[in-house]
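Database export, one record per block. Field names are fixed; values are copied verbatim from the stored entry.
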Amino acid sequence: MSSVSINRNQLFWASCLALLVTSLSFGIRAGILNRLGVEFQLNATQLGTIAATAFWGFPLAVILGGMVVDTIGMKKLLVLAFLFHLAGILMTVFAGGFWSLFLSTLLIGIANGTVEAACNPLVAALFPDNKTTKLNHFHLWFPGGIVIGTLLVYFLDKAGIGWQVQVGLMLIPTLLYGYFFSKLQFPVTERVAAGVTTAEMYKSLLNPLFLFMIVCMFGTAITELFTGQWIDVLLRNVTDNALLILTVTTGVMVIGRGLAEPVVHKLSPQGVLLISAILSAIGLYILGHSSGNMVFLGALVFGMGVCYFWPTMIGFVAENLPKTGAVGLNLMGGAGMFAVSVYMMFMGGFYDRKLISKLPEGADLKTYSEAAPGTEMANALTAAKTAAGPEIINATLTIPIVLTVAFAGLYVYMRNRQKPTLLKA
């Protein structure tokens, strides 16, 4: 990497700006999901499908991007991400119903995946001796953008400003990162720089430790992202400030990722993952068994739990399985998002069925959803939602409990294992 032509800090900050757009799309969508349901008369299954679309557009892009990034370079991928973001945001602003929301959310999901496909290997290449810490610093912009997005929705709602303007605000950081990346010089990926062949990289993907981490990524991603995206829908009737729960959770994540260096160095990536799984389980338990202000305690503990999951999973692979290269890092991200998309679609239908089971026998959910506020039917639906939301959270609680056992095993396994390098591995 030539220090003359490569401006490490500018590339890192432009990457953070691109990730900010990704996270704003999550925060703003989580904040307007209920309103889209009302405006376009969508049920929970349809809302779940729209929200899930971003999550399977992401793995599609991140896996394909991971396979071509070494060949076409990180710069071209990020120009593509910019174009997809631009198209997806504009299509959302002018959406007219289910299918336009579905397509625009898919485009934004593809853009989000393309950002990660290029930026994860970029950060690893820029900071080869401090990968997990710098990936945590980079990924703090994910919860950071969600905090900004949810607060924007909250305050702009209070000011009576429509959701189209809220979505349109994402154009500002999109245009900025597109401009910066078009001007900057990029390094090659770490795998290319080290001379590891493509065949060696693909062979490394069959390493049992890598396959184990992929399966764990399913669980860590669902625990963090499903809960974050659906919190407003699930807990709206349990507390008056459901969206602020997401703000508390993600605020804790921003602080935690910013302070990642001493935590990661003291505990090791696998130690961080074990403690994260335990705290996530405790946090979800409190969220699913509380009401009023106790819900915010649950959000605080849950935020501490999921804080390090995503970047530390990717950092663990970058440090301990370096031969898997950009494909390995991006398969991790793709696997996580794919798992969330499947889980979201399943849970959207599960939530609808839970609501129906709590309404009078033979009740039609669509009829109850359209009932005027204050009527007997509307009140019955509110009571059903109040009971059903925590049940979905309690069903999800199983996942971090299983992860706790898995990461305890990983911690024991890694205790006497030497960390490989690309040159020796």
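Remark 1: The chain has one domain: 12-414.
Remark 2: The radius of gyration is 21 Å.
End of record.
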